[in-house]
Amino acid sequence: MYQQLARPEQLFGHVFADSEGFLVTFTGQQARLRRPNARPNELDDTRQCSWSYPEEAQQAGEYLISQAQEERDAYFGVHLFREPGNRRAKNAVPTVQALWLDEDEGTYPGIGPEPTAVVYSSVKRRHLYWKLTHPVSIEWAVELNRGVARWAGGDIGKAGAASVLRAAGTGNYKRHPQVDLVAGQLTGSGPWEPEVLDQAIPMEPAPTPRRSERTEPYTGPELELAPYLETVEVLGEVPDTHGVKFRIVCPWVREHSHGDRSGTRLGKRSSGALWFHCDHEHCIGRSWRDFRREVKRRARGRARAERGSRIIRTEPS
Question: Which part of the chain is CATH 3.30.70.1790?
């Protein structure tokens, strides 16, 4: 059963759940209201404010409504930030509890997982949200947001960590003097397991290497992937036009924010090269060699523990 979203803070609660940080609001007035020759949707007199979330969620909502009543377009940052006054991606709180999509001129496929919230930014435009069962890394969320946007033909630029979207309960003055009310609703679906969404969204084909990238064939020793898959928890195989790829639990998962198990992949190129990648902030810069070194170190540790256990069992009582 659908539940109407009449105020911004209702949407905040759905998107941010029990997260903490700074909520950003962004408002501006359509420039052509003062300058007829201004570009479409160019904003003048922009204002950005930060609010402590969740303590100031209601004040932030009231502020956005008051701005809309002054014929100003009102937006909010779709995730929280560590410090106030800064909407840069590197200031983002490391985890999020929802995915988002600016459908723009595209259409989200009906066969996909149903959004948990829909905001109508105008009569024909929608913003979609998928509430998650637990927090995931911002890096993983942005990657999947881009996948959803590509699938829907939506705005890939709004998938990132510094995006703002319109707040329910405000107004859209882009077509002034016509004003579109920004309305929203909860669909009653979800929340969704992150891995379910990851499996449901089609993967983007691997890009063709740029001219500046190395394209010569792999000439190293032939290596088998199976022994390495046996050292980690495998969550499933995903399509890869350049070889085979598996979603795995990262060896450094304990370092991930909230122990997030998503966003890590292990694979083998058609050329024979093995590779490892993890989207999480704590794993930036970790390569295949780091992965191989870590799993071998753990294997040696387990072997020593097993030898010690056998010695203890064979000692006479």
Answer: 3-200
